[in-house]
Amino acid sequence: MSSALFFRRQPVLPGFTLSFGLSVLFVSAVILVPLTALPLYLSGLGWAEYWQLITDPRVLASYQVTLKAAALAAVANALIGLLLAWVLVRYRFPGRRLMDALVDLPFALPTAVAGITLTTLFASNGWLGQWFHRFDIQITYAVPGLVLAMAFTSLPFVVRALQPVLEDLSVDYEDAARTLGANRAKSFLYVVLPHLRPALITGTALAFIRSLGEFGAVIFIAGNIPFETEVTSLMIFVRLQEYDYEAAAAVASVVLATSLLLLIAVQRLQHHYLKRLQGN
Protein backbone atom coordinates (compact mmCIF):
# COMPACT_ATOMS: atom_id res chain seq x y z
CA MET A 1 0.00 0.00 0.00
CA SER A 2 1.46 3.35 -0.99
CA SER A 3 1.76 6.09 1.62
CA ALA A 4 -0.45 8.38 -0.47
CA LEU A 5 -3.27 5.82 -0.53
CA PHE A 6 -2.85 5.22 3.20
CA PHE A 7 -3.39 8.89 4.04
CA ARG A 8 -6.45 9.10 1.76
CA ARG A 9 -8.21 6.19 3.46
CA GLN A 10 -10.91 6.87 6.00
CA PRO A 11 -9.61 5.45 9.30
CA VAL A 12 -11.80 3.23 11.45
CA LEU A 13 -11.02 5.23 14.57
CA PRO A 14 -11.78 8.98 14.54
CA GLY A 15 -9.09 11.58 15.05
CA PHE A 16 -6.41 10.05 12.85
CA THR A 17 -4.41 13.26 12.61
CA LEU A 18 -4.30 13.68 16.39
CA SER A 19 -3.50 10.01 17.10
CA PHE A 20 -0.84 9.90 14.37
CA GLY A 21 0.73 13.11 15.64
CA LEU A 22 0.78 11.88 19.24
CA SER A 23 2.35 8.59 18.12
CA VAL A 24 5.11 10.40 16.26
CA LEU A 25 5.62 12.75 19.22
CA PHE A 26 5.87 9.81 21.65
CA VAL A 27 8.39 7.95 19.51
CA SER A 28 10.45 11.10 19.08
CA ALA A 29 10.37 12.11 22.76
CA VAL A 30 10.90 8.68 24.30
CA ILE A 31 13.21 7.02 21.77
CA LEU A 32 14.82 9.41 19.31
CA VAL A 33 15.60 12.39 21.58
CA PRO A 34 17.35 10.30 24.30
CA LEU A 35 19.38 8.58 21.59
CA THR A 36 20.71 11.91 20.41
CA ALA A 37 22.67 12.11 23.68
CA LEU A 38 25.06 9.48 22.33
CA PRO A 39 26.21 11.51 19.30
CA LEU A 40 26.57 14.54 21.57
CA TYR A 41 28.94 12.69 23.90
CA LEU A 42 30.80 11.19 20.95
CA SER A 43 31.13 14.46 19.07
CA GLY A 44 34.25 15.39 21.04
CA LEU A 45 36.07 12.19 20.11
CA GLY A 46 38.29 11.65 17.12
CA TRP A 47 38.10 8.41 15.17
CA ALA A 48 41.37 7.07 16.67
CA GLU A 49 40.23 7.81 20.22
CA TYR A 50 36.80 6.29 19.56
CA TRP A 51 38.38 3.16 18.10
CA GLN A 52 40.71 2.86 21.08
CA LEU A 53 37.77 3.09 23.50
CA ILE A 54 35.65 0.42 21.79
CA THR A 55 38.58 -1.95 21.23
CA ASP A 56 40.05 -1.80 24.72
CA PRO A 57 40.99 -5.40 25.70
CA ARG A 58 38.58 -5.36 28.66
CA VAL A 59 35.77 -4.07 26.43
CA LEU A 60 36.53 -6.67 23.75
CA ALA A 61 36.33 -9.36 26.41
CA SER A 62 32.93 -8.02 27.48
CA TYR A 63 31.70 -8.25 23.85
CA GLN A 64 32.82 -11.88 23.72
CA VAL A 65 31.19 -12.79 27.03
CA THR A 66 27.96 -11.02 26.06
CA LEU A 67 27.69 -12.67 22.64
CA LYS A 68 28.50 -16.11 24.04
CA ALA A 69 25.98 -15.90 26.89
CA ALA A 70 23.26 -14.32 24.70
CA ALA A 71 23.72 -17.00 22.02
CA LEU A 72 23.50 -19.83 24.56
CA ALA A 73 20.43 -18.22 26.16
CA ALA A 74 18.78 -17.81 22.75
CA VAL A 75 19.36 -21.47 21.86
CA ALA A 76 17.99 -22.58 25.24
CA ASN A 77 14.96 -20.33 24.79
CA ALA A 78 14.34 -21.68 21.29
CA LEU A 79 14.09 -25.23 22.65
CA ILE A 80 12.26 -24.44 25.90
CA GLY A 81 10.01 -21.83 24.26
CA LEU A 82 8.98 -24.25 21.50
CA LEU A 83 8.16 -26.93 24.05
CA LEU A 84 6.27 -24.51 26.29
CA ALA A 85 4.23 -23.04 23.43
CA TRP A 86 3.41 -26.55 22.21
CA VAL A 87 2.16 -27.64 25.64
CA LEU A 88 0.07 -24.48 26.11
CA VAL A 89 -1.59 -24.75 22.69
CA ARG A 90 -1.94 -28.48 22.12
CA TYR A 91 -3.00 -29.66 25.60
CA ARG A 92 -5.77 -28.78 28.05
CA PHE A 93 -4.88 -29.37 31.70
CA PRO A 94 -5.59 -27.84 35.13
CA GLY A 95 -3.47 -24.75 35.69
CA ARG A 96 -2.96 -24.10 31.98
CA ARG A 97 -4.15 -20.48 32.21
CA LEU A 98 -1.88 -19.89 35.20
CA MET A 99 1.08 -21.32 33.29
CA ASP A 100 0.18 -19.14 30.33
CA ALA A 101 0.14 -16.05 32.55
CA LEU A 102 3.45 -16.98 34.20
CA VAL A 103 5.15 -16.88 30.80
CA ASP A 104 4.78 -13.10 30.86
CA LEU A 105 6.14 -12.78 34.39
CA PRO A 106 9.64 -11.75 33.21
CA PHE A 107 8.02 -8.79 31.44
CA ALA A 108 6.22 -7.66 34.61
CA LEU A 109 8.91 -8.50 37.16
CA PRO A 110 11.66 -5.91 37.67
CA THR A 111 14.82 -7.42 36.24
CA ALA A 112 16.75 -6.53 39.40
CA VAL A 113 14.31 -8.61 41.44
CA ALA A 114 14.80 -11.48 39.00
CA GLY A 115 18.56 -11.17 39.38
CA ILE A 116 18.42 -11.19 43.19
CA THR A 117 16.03 -14.15 43.19
CA LEU A 118 18.12 -16.20 40.78
CA THR A 119 21.31 -15.39 42.70
CA THR A 120 19.71 -16.50 45.97
CA LEU A 121 18.37 -19.72 44.48
CA PHE A 122 21.50 -20.73 42.57
CA ALA A 123 24.20 -19.63 45.03
CA SER A 124 26.40 -22.48 46.21
CA ASN A 125 24.37 -22.61 49.44
CA GLY A 126 21.01 -21.79 47.78
CA TRP A 127 18.03 -24.11 47.45
CA LEU A 128 18.94 -25.16 43.92
CA GLY A 129 22.57 -24.16 43.72
CA GLN A 130 23.63 -26.56 46.48
CA TRP A 131 22.73 -29.51 44.21
CA PHE A 132 24.91 -28.19 41.40
CA HIS A 133 27.66 -27.40 43.91
CA ARG A 134 27.84 -31.09 44.87
CA PHE A 135 28.90 -31.84 41.27
CA ASP A 136 31.33 -28.89 41.28
CA ILE A 137 29.11 -26.90 38.91
CA GLN A 138 29.09 -23.17 39.66
CA ILE A 139 26.06 -21.21 38.47
CA THR A 140 26.40 -17.82 40.15
CA TYR A 141 29.36 -15.57 39.31
CA ALA A 142 30.01 -17.70 36.22
CA VAL A 143 28.83 -17.94 32.61
CA PRO A 144 25.98 -20.38 33.44
CA GLY A 145 24.52 -17.70 35.70
CA LEU A 146 24.65 -15.16 32.87
CA VAL A 147 22.91 -17.60 30.53
CA LEU A 148 20.27 -18.37 33.15
CA ALA A 149 19.49 -14.69 33.79
CA MET A 150 19.34 -13.85 30.07
CA ALA A 151 17.17 -16.89 29.30
CA PHE A 152 14.77 -15.98 32.10
CA THR A 153 14.20 -12.42 30.89
CA SER A 154 13.89 -13.24 27.17
CA LEU A 155 11.87 -16.48 27.15
CA PRO A 156 8.48 -14.75 26.52
CA PHE A 157 9.69 -13.49 23.12
CA VAL A 158 9.89 -17.06 21.78
CA VAL A 159 6.70 -18.36 23.40
CA ARG A 160 4.55 -15.41 22.36
CA ALA A 161 5.88 -15.54 18.80
CA LEU A 162 5.06 -19.25 18.43
CA GLN A 163 1.67 -19.44 20.15
CA PRO A 164 -0.47 -17.69 17.47
CA VAL A 165 1.13 -19.76 14.70
CA LEU A 166 0.53 -23.00 16.56
CA GLU A 167 -3.09 -22.04 17.26
CA ASP A 168 -3.65 -21.42 13.53
CA LEU A 169 -1.98 -24.71 12.56
CA SER A 170 -4.68 -27.36 12.66
CA VAL A 171 -3.90 -30.81 14.03
CA ASP A 172 -5.43 -32.12 10.78
CA TYR A 173 -2.03 -31.56 9.12
CA GLU A 174 -0.41 -33.87 11.64
CA ASP A 175 -3.18 -36.46 11.23
CA ALA A 176 -2.85 -36.32 7.44
CA ALA A 177 0.90 -36.90 7.69
CA ARG A 178 0.33 -39.85 10.02
CA THR A 179 -2.20 -41.43 7.63
CA LEU A 180 0.38 -41.13 4.83
CA GLY A 181 2.82 -43.21 6.83
CA ALA A 182 4.93 -40.56 8.58
CA ASN A 183 5.89 -41.28 12.16
CA ARG A 184 5.71 -38.63 14.89
CA ALA A 185 9.24 -37.37 14.32
CA LYS A 186 8.77 -37.00 10.56
CA SER A 187 5.35 -35.36 11.05
CA PHE A 188 6.95 -32.77 13.30
CA LEU A 189 10.09 -32.22 11.23
CA TYR A 190 8.50 -32.09 7.77
CA VAL A 191 4.98 -30.79 8.49
CA VAL A 192 4.88 -28.79 11.72
CA LEU A 193 8.37 -27.31 11.97
CA PRO A 194 8.38 -25.64 8.51
CA HIS A 195 5.26 -23.70 9.52
CA LEU A 196 6.81 -22.70 12.83
CA ARG A 197 10.23 -21.79 11.44
CA PRO A 198 9.57 -18.07 10.70
CA ALA A 199 8.05 -17.43 14.13
CA LEU A 200 10.72 -19.52 15.84
CA ILE A 201 13.54 -17.65 14.11
CA THR A 202 11.94 -14.27 14.81
CA GLY A 203 11.29 -15.04 18.48
CA THR A 204 14.77 -16.44 18.99
CA ALA A 205 16.35 -13.44 17.30
CA LEU A 206 14.37 -11.03 19.46
CA ALA A 207 15.37 -12.99 22.57
CA PHE A 208 19.02 -12.78 21.48
CA ILE A 209 18.79 -9.02 20.94
CA ARG A 210 17.06 -8.56 24.30
CA SER A 211 19.83 -10.52 26.01
CA LEU A 212 22.55 -8.34 24.48
CA GLY A 213 21.40 -5.36 26.53
CA GLU A 214 20.30 -7.15 29.70
CA PHE A 215 21.54 -5.41 32.82
CA GLY A 216 19.30 -5.68 35.90
CA ALA A 217 19.07 -9.46 36.04
CA VAL A 218 22.73 -9.93 35.15
CA ILE A 219 24.41 -7.49 37.52
CA PHE A 220 23.68 -9.56 40.63
CA ILE A 221 24.38 -13.04 39.30
CA ALA A 222 27.38 -12.25 37.10
CA GLY A 223 29.80 -11.15 39.79
CA ASN A 224 31.26 -8.54 37.41
CA ILE A 225 34.59 -10.33 37.04
CA PRO A 226 36.62 -8.62 34.27
CA PHE A 227 37.47 -10.87 31.31
CA GLU A 228 35.24 -13.63 32.74
CA THR A 229 31.67 -12.57 33.52
CA GLU A 230 31.65 -8.86 32.73
CA VAL A 231 29.07 -8.23 29.98
CA THR A 232 28.95 -5.09 27.87
CA SER A 233 26.05 -3.48 29.73
CA LEU A 234 28.06 -3.83 32.95
CA MET A 235 31.09 -2.39 31.15
CA ILE A 236 29.05 0.72 30.34
CA PHE A 237 27.98 0.95 33.98
CA VAL A 238 31.59 0.68 35.12
CA ARG A 239 32.63 3.51 32.80
CA LEU A 240 29.79 5.67 34.15
CA GLN A 241 30.91 4.97 37.72
CA GLU A 242 34.36 6.16 36.68
CA TYR A 243 32.75 9.37 35.31
CA ASP A 244 34.18 8.45 31.90
CA TYR A 245 31.05 9.41 29.99
CA GLU A 246 32.70 9.45 26.56
CA ALA A 247 33.94 5.87 26.99
CA ALA A 248 30.50 4.78 28.19
CA ALA A 249 28.87 6.47 25.20
CA ALA A 250 31.37 4.86 22.80
CA VAL A 251 30.67 1.35 24.11
CA ALA A 252 26.93 2.07 24.20
CA SER A 253 27.06 3.14 20.55
CA VAL A 254 28.42 -0.31 19.63
CA VAL A 255 25.56 -2.01 21.48
CA LEU A 256 23.04 0.34 19.90
CA ALA A 257 24.37 -0.17 16.38
CA THR A 258 24.49 -3.95 16.81
CA SER A 259 20.95 -4.13 18.20
CA LEU A 260 19.60 -1.81 15.50
CA LEU A 261 21.19 -3.82 12.68
CA LEU A 262 19.83 -7.07 14.13
CA LEU A 263 16.34 -5.58 14.47
CA ILE A 264 16.44 -4.43 10.84
CA ALA A 265 17.55 -7.94 9.84
CA VAL A 266 14.61 -9.43 11.78
CA GLN A 267 12.22 -7.02 10.06
CA ARG A 268 13.56 -7.97 6.64
CA LEU A 269 13.30 -11.64 7.54
CA GLN A 270 9.67 -11.21 8.59
CA HIS A 271 8.95 -9.32 5.36
CA HIS A 272 10.59 -12.11 3.36
CA TYR A 273 8.51 -14.85 5.00
CA LEU A 274 5.34 -12.75 4.67
CA LYS A 275 5.92 -12.39 0.93
CA ARG A 276 6.49 -16.13 0.65
CA LEU A 277 3.23 -16.84 2.48
CA GLN A 278 1.33 -14.40 0.29
CA GLY A 279 2.91 -15.99 -2.78
CA ASN A 280 1.74 -19.43 -1.66
Automatic annotation (TrEMBL):
Q: Where in the cell is it found?
A: Cell membrane
Q: Does the entry feature the keyword Membrane, yes or no?
A: yes
Topological relation to the membrane, as annotated: Multi-pass membrane protein
Q: Which domain of life is it from?
A: Bacteria
| InterPro entries tied to this protein | CysT_permease (IPR011865), MetI-like (IPR000515), MetI-like_sf (IPR035906), Sulph_transpt2 (IPR005667)
Classification via Pfam families: BPD_transp_1
Residues of the ABC transmembrane type-1 domain: 63-266
Is Isomerase one of the keywords UniProt gives this record?
Answer: no
Q: What's in the keyword line of the UniProt record?
A: Membrane, Sulfate transport, Transmembrane, Transmembrane helix, Transport
The membrane spanning regions, by residue number, are 12-42, 69-89, 101-127, 139-159, 247-266
| Assigned protein family | Belongs to the binding-protein-dependent transport system permease family. CysTW subfamily.
Protein name per the record: Sulfate transport system permease protein CysT
Q: Identify the species of origin.
A: Isoalcanivorax beigongshangi
